[in-house]
């Protein structure tokens, strides 16, 4: 066997991430390791865009509340089922086979990749524009086609690292994450030193000064956007926790890594955007332009390093986690092929070049998918299956077809998912952000969708015939 073939085989065996349960001996993460890994994924320049977006909806004081409250509230709830990943060494998408059926899970994972991996298009776009803008400050102007080349460097550079497997990712996260957090502290210091503290503290966007009604809508939209931001981690949230030694570490690495560290960088983006508006009269989301305008050129170079390492690192971590998620449903596909497919998908978005114009819509559409999915997993794990499924059915051992349901679809789970999806659409148009039911909108569309899905799934399982059909695995549960 050639060296390359042996390496490919080793990585594919490592990527049995949801195909074969991880045993206690195979676990390799302490809390600190998992925290650094999750933080590395959370540190990306999409946080600057998110911070600027929130700053256009609410004042700075309200933003602090919405970012921390919205993010942590969502993560502390949706991350609870992650204990199944740590306890049993399986990804959440193995558990979802009992809720949606084998074919239903495949469709769900593809839909999640199509929707949520668009954020990696944002990463590539910001990576390219930051390099162009920094060179532009030195009067070096690249031809237009270089923008796409730079974006592709970010995409395939991250994909290459992802193909190297968890060992290489561990090294990069342990070295880069502390450095990037340190640079983030420097960046936020520059923001606060470039404008009076009271100007930032008392900042209120122009669009919400007109009336209390505008302020209330902005506050709700900002909170919903941060809940949706938290839900965006849902697809790959069990990838790292299933490798941790304890359930406590597996649970807390998400809220602390993605929640606190990710939120910190959202706030950095908001502070810098507000400072830019104060200094130049224009709110800018590009960290390189921010640093070059508000500080000295060496600091702009530091921000460039932040953009480069953070975005390539995020692309690598995201490609790894989502390739593993897909492998849980498409177990015959090679890990490297799945990573390459993800890179090609993001490349299409980079060539299109308009992804930054649709950040708000992406958040809302992601909420349509993730809020009901999170509700299903939470409800099924704690209240319906009560932490027990059949591994034989999940892995189809000896042809076990229990979770095939109706042609591979479980109508109980899918019907509940549809109710949650429709509920969000009834409350608010996710694209235009038109409020359709003001009373329910006060509770945020994400929360309404979550509660509706949870209620529908519980009520359906109160019907004896439906419950027997949905829980047809009770005689063969193995965990």
Describe this structure in words.
There is one protein chain. The protein has 479 residues and is mostly helical. The protein is built from 22 helices and no strands. The chain has helices spanning 3-14, 31-42, 46-55, 60-78, 82-88, 92-100, 102-116, 118-137, 145-163, 166-194, 197-201, 212-231, 247-280, 287-294, 297-329, 335-352, 359-384, 391-394, 411-427, 438-441, 445-460, 464-470. Helix 4 packs antiparallel against helix 13. The longest helix has 34 residues, at 247-280. The two termini are 38 Å apart. Mean pLDDT is 84; it is low at 13-18.
Arithmetic mean of pLDDT: 84
Shape: globular
Q: Residue share in helices?
A: over 70%
Q: Return Rg in Å.
A: 22 Å
Structural class: mainly alpha
Please give the oligomerization state of what you see.
single chain
Q: How far from one another are the termini? A: 38 Å
User: Major beta sheet, specifics?
Assistant: none
Report the β-strand fraction as a percent range. Answer: under 5%
- Strand tally, please? 0
Give me the strand/helix succession: HHHHHHHHHHHHHHHHHHHHHH
